[in-house]
Design brief:
This protein is of the alpha/beta class. The protein contains 5 helices and 7 strands, in the order ββααβββββααα. It has a 4-stranded mixed β-sheet with strand order 2-3-7-6, covered by helices on one side. Strands 1-4-5 form a 3-stranded antiparallel β-sheet, with no helix packed on it. Strand 6 and strand 7 form a beta hairpin. Helix 1 crosses helix 4 and helix 3 runs antiparallel to helix 4. The radius of gyration is 16 Å and the shape is globular.
Length: 208
C-alpha cells in the first residue's frame, strides 16, 4: 500500500458505499462479461488506460481474469466508507491508497476494492508546483502497485491465497511480492524502480 506516513492505515475493512460508482450491490459485479477493472473516475481511467497501453504484463493479467466474473473496483475516498464499531466512517484522509478484497464463503474473492486518494495526491503535487506529467506518473506508479501488485493476484487466484504482501519488518523492500510486481510494470512504463517501503519511489517525495 501507499501511505503518506509510515504506520498510517485503515482501522477496519473498507466496505463499499458506491452509489456514485453504480455498484450498490457488489454481487451484481460477478458476471462473466465486462471489463475486469472498473472505475467511474476519469483521471483514474486515464491512468489505467496509460498502463494498459504500455505494459504487456498488465494486459496479460487482465486477459487471464477476463470472463471469470472477477472485478477490481478502483474508487476514490468519497465512493467508500470504512467499517467502524457502531457504524461506518470516512476513508482516512492521510492514507494515499489502500486495497481490500471482498470475501465470501470463507475465503473466496470475486471483487477487490482499490481506493486511491486522488484529492490528496493532487493537493501534494499542487503544493510542489508539479508538472501535470509528474502527477500522472505518480498515479500510474500507485496503480501499478495497488492493482497489479495487490488486487490482480487475488483476482487471478479467486481467493485469499492470492495475497501478495508488502515488505515485512526487516525485509528488503524490493524483495516483497507486491513491490516486485510493481517494479516489473514500472520497468515496462519507464517509471523507475521502487526500492523502499515508503514514498521514496514517487516523484512527490523527490526534491526539485
Amino acid at each position: 500500500m501507499y501511505r503518506t506516513a509510515i504506520g498510517v492505515g485503515l482501522a477496519a475493512m473498507i466496505i463499499a458505499a458506491p452509489a456514485r460508482a453504480g455498484a450498490q450491490d457488489l454481487s451484481r459485479l460477478h458476471q462473466p462479461v465486462g471489463p475486469p477493472i472498473i472505475t467511474r473516475t476519469p483521471v483514474l481511467q486515464d491512468s489505467l488506460d496509460r498502463i494498459s497501453r504500455g505494459s504487456a504484463l498488465w494486459r496479460e493479467a487482465l486477459e487471464l481474469i477476463r470472463g471469470a466474473g472477477r472485478r477490481a473496483l478502483v474508487l476514490t475516498p468519497d465512493q467508500v466508507a470504512v467499517a467502524e464499531e457502531g457504524g461506518a466512517g470516512p476513508f482516512e484522509a492521510g492514507v494515499l491508497a489502500e486495497v481490500a478484497p471482498v470475501t465470501y464463503a470463507g475465503s473466496r474473492v470475486d471483487v477487490v476494492l482499490v481506493v486511491v486518494n486522488v484529492p490528496l495526491l493532487e493537493e501534494i503535487h499542487a503544493r510542489r508546483n508539479s508538472l501535470r506529467g509528474e502527477l500522472e506518473a505518480d498515479l500510474d506508479r500507485i496503480l501499478a502497485h495497488e492493482v497489479y501488485g495487490h488486487a490482480l493476484p487475488y483476482l487471478l487466484a479467486g481467493d485469499l491465497s492470492g495475497r501478495c504482501p508488502d515488505p515485512q519488518p526487516g525485509q528488503r523492500a524490493d524483495t516483497a511480492c507486491a513491490i516486485q510486481r510493481e517494479n516489473a510494470v514500472r520497468a515496462e512504463l519507464r517509471l523507475g524502480r521502487r526500492t523502499d517501503a515508503g514514498l521514496g519511489g514517487l516523484s512527490l517525495a523527490w526534491r526539485h
